[in-house]
């Protein structure tokens, strides 16, 4: 494949997964005239379900990504961080899928009205991965127009892109599908591997297991180069990058680390402090 053709294919795939649908100029102007506030696409609500109003609080703060932990109990997908806190009334459907469907309907096809890029829904599987994913797949298929879809080698963008994380056993049944409504959350060990971005759309890993710097003092040059190398390698394949376990206590250290993540092109900043990350990103509009 010629280099220019390869770049065009990767650019198209990256745009599809990120939802950056390219509109004609006239249509873009028309959509812009009805746009709401600028979404913060790089903001990821870690453990989103722990907030007083799951999903709604993150959307009110204009987040571009939310995370929901799921447990398979019977044929229900219950939301919670630990099995001891599960409530039959708190399901993936009631807290996320139905509200997202209603919001997209009200937003004329978008989570954020006038903005065509999809919201990322990161689903962290806490029970056995294969069986839980198959039930998740059945749930997602109930909403045929809501999710970005992979079908026979092509990605069809939707208002929401579901990405499956957590128990690694989910990978096998996902990889076996020729059509699915979710993508896989890889690890740094997957970076540069054979799986394409239309399967592994996101690379996530634990910050503290890969870097020693926590925002205090000077960022070591070797670690900065490593970080830029990670994001560069992911971008070349049309993949996005996120780190969890980054410092989340408000203060200069967190701001310094977030600044370095932005500078390196990390796609999602991880936080439980919705207002804090909103304020930070609003002060960095180029992000």
Order of helices and strands: HHEHEEHEHEEEHEEEHEHEH
The computed structural class is: alpha/beta
The CATH architecture is Alpha-Beta Barrel
CATH topology value: TIM Barrel
Please name the fourth-level CATH homologous superfamily: Phosphatidylinositol (PI) phosphodiesterase
Oligomer: single chain
In total, the number of domains comes to: 1
User: In percent terms, what proportion of residues is strand?
Assistant: 15-25%
- The top-level CATH class is Alpha Beta
Shape: globular
Mean pLDDT: 91
Helix share bin: 25-40%
Radius of gyration: 18 Å
- Major beta sheet, specifics? 9 strands, mixed
Number of strands: 12
Short description:
By secondary structure, this protein is α/β, with parallel strands linked by helices.
Describe the structure.
By secondary structure, the protein is of the alpha/beta class. The chain has a single domain (3-282), classed as Alpha-Beta Barrel (TIM Barrel), CATH 3.20.20. The protein contains 9 helices and 12 strands. The two termini are 33 Å apart.
